[in-house]
Amino acid sequence: MRQIGKDSNSYGIIGLGRFGTTVALELVQAGKEVVVLETDEAKIAAIKGKIEHIYPVDTITQEVLVESGISHCGTVIICIGSNIESSILTALNVIELGIPRVIAKANSEDHGKVLRKIGAEVVFPEIESGIRLAKSLVSMNTLDFLELDDDMSISEIRISSKFNGKTVHELNFRKRFSLNIIAIIRENKTIVTIDPEIMLHEGDEIVVVGRNEDIAQFEKINRKEHNSLL
Predict the structure, then answer these.
(1) What is the pLDDT of residues 96-105, one digit of tens each?
(2) Which residues have C-beta within 8 Å of that of residue 144, sequence separation ≥ 6?
(3) 130 pLDDT tier (thresholds 50, 70, 90)
(4) In a domain, 118, yes or no
(5) What pLDDT digit, counting tens, does each position of 47-98 carry?
């Protein structure tokens, strides 16, 4: 089994249910290094050829984690669902290996409480939340993300050079992007009174609230390097 460097662009996925498969494929599509472990060979066969580093295993032990290369990943996502004992033991093994970020799927509040107690981040996913998790992991511009419901979120976004020197009024921000700026973080100071004439600077972190699709569209425009605002 191949080992990969331990960095923030390397991801380990343990378990290929709907959630694990969704996260794994989204990360691969984003060009990230992904290592997958799965005990069910039928699930592996279902995505054969789509993920390079995918290994069938009998059990998840620390030895297996090291041999597969998952111990060198910056983030490991544990997607084991129905077997709560296996989920908790796997999370414990991963955490003891010193993985910087461990995210685990939970099926109940009690399951989640145990996972948090041992040091894992917890998610309660459906397929859609798997997609959002993968995209939040690889987004360079989204610094933080709080989902309000299935359609609305609060997101913290770092302004690129594209909007440097532009005022909120000049950009016609609310009408053009359908987003409300609720705060601007600049040089470790938070501005909560957003005057239309306030000027945005490259590196500012703006906190916006709006629909997920509008946030995603603004992030896309913010990342573009040419001068057109589209």
Answers:
(1) 999 999 999 9
(2) 155, 156
(3) low
(4) yes
(5) 888 998 999 999 999 999 999 999 999 999 999 977 899 999 999 999 999 9
Give the range of the structural domain holding residue 174, as residue numbers without chain letter.
141-223
- Round to the nearest angstrom and report the end-to-end CA distance of the chain: 46
In a domain, 5, yes or no: no
Domain end point (choices 137, 162, 178):
137
Q: What is the pLDDT of residues 199-214, one digit of tens each?
A: 999 999 998 888 888 9
pLDDT score recorded for residue 155 = 83
Give yes or no: residues 168 and 104 share one domain: no
Q: Which residues contact 225 (CB under 8 A, 6 or more apart)?
A: 161, 162
Looking at the fold, whether 161 and 104 belong to one and the same domain comes out as: no
How far apart CA 39 and CA 203 sit, in angstroms, is: 45
Rounded CA separation 76/155 (Å): 23
| Sheet strands (E) in 2-70 | 10-14, 33-38, 53-56
DSSP state of 199: B
Same domain (yes/no): 32, 97: yes
Q: Which of 137, 163, 191 is the last residue of a domain?
A: 137
